[in-house]
Amino acid sequence: MKVILVRHAETEWNSRGIIQGREDSALTKHGQCQTAALLQAFAENGYEAESVYASPLGRTWNMGQVLAKHFRCSLVAEATLKEQAFGQLEGMSAEQFKKNHQDEANALFELDAEYCPPGGESLTQASRRIIDFLINLEKSGHYNAVCIVSHGHVSQGVLAILCDGNIDQFARYAHPNASYSVFDIKNGRCETIRWGIATHLRHLKC
Questions:
Q1: 143-172 per-position pLDDT tens digit
Q2: 2-201 — its CATH code?
Q3: CA distance linking residue 179 with residue 16, whole number of Å
Q4: pTM for the structure as a whole
Q5: Which UniProt keywords are present, listed alphabetically (predicted)?
Q6: What's the count of helices (H) and strands (E) in the chain, helices before strands?
Q7: SS3 breakdown of the chain: % helix, strand, coil, rounded to 5?
Q8: Which of 12, 43, 88, 121 lies deepest, with the highest CB count within 10 Å?
Q9: Using an 8 Å Cβ cutoff, are 69 and 94 in contact?
């Protein structure tokens, strides 16, 4: 099963450096331009999908609707694709969190996938639920190709597991807004992965 993993486009909180997690904010104008560029890239590269599964949070659901229309396929809300829950950190400035809690911020964003924010979940927990979803979807045998719309931080964890077999180096798997990764899952194992593709975003003028 071929998987196209897409991160949602830029939101107001992304542009202001605010931790979103399970909270939400509207797309920016730049985010709308990113979405248009992504659709053009998919059309030019001939990507196809038989179904789009999206996190039900507003920013991902919006992208899911656009992609389902582009691929002319069904759109399914899937709660397991939500972002890592950041608990009490949601709505907080990432810069302020780093300033006041440097060790915890380093653990969360760069070093320790087992770190659990107060009232939230660890990156390992969040990534594992998405990996399990993908494996079960492949086992069902329903699709040859699907598009998955999820979030930035949890996508880093997922990609680390798929590429390395463990989550330790998650920080290196950057997944910018409206970027995508493409990989194949066969018999529960990942093959032929390209991650963090963002060349379509290089020359945006808005």
A1: 999 999 999 999 999 999 999 999 999 999
A2: 3.40.50.1240
A3: 19
A4: 0.96
A5: Hydrolase
A6: 7, 6
A7: 45, 20, 35
A8: 121
A9: no
pLDDT tens per residue, range 92-109: 999 999 999 999 999 999
Specify the pairing of strand 74-77 against strand 51-54.
parallel
**Nearest to residue 1, comparing CAs of 132, 120, 139, 174?**
139
Helix, coil or strand: residue 185: strand
Question: Per-residue b/e over 56-73, b at no fewer than 16 CB within 10 Å?
Answer: ebebbbbbbebbbebbeb
- State the distance between the two ends of the chain, measured CA to CA, in whole angstroms: 35
Amino acid at 42: F
Residues 6+ apart with CB under 8 A from 179: 6, 7, 196, 197, 198, 201
* Separation between Cα atoms, residue 52 and residue 14, nearest integer Å: 23
Q: Which residues of the chain have pLDDT under 70?
A: none
Instruction: Walk across the sheet containing 189-197 and list its strands.
Output: 74-77, 51-54, 145-150, 2-7, 180-186, 189-197
For residues 55 and 5, is the Cβ–Cβ distance under 8 A?
Answer: no
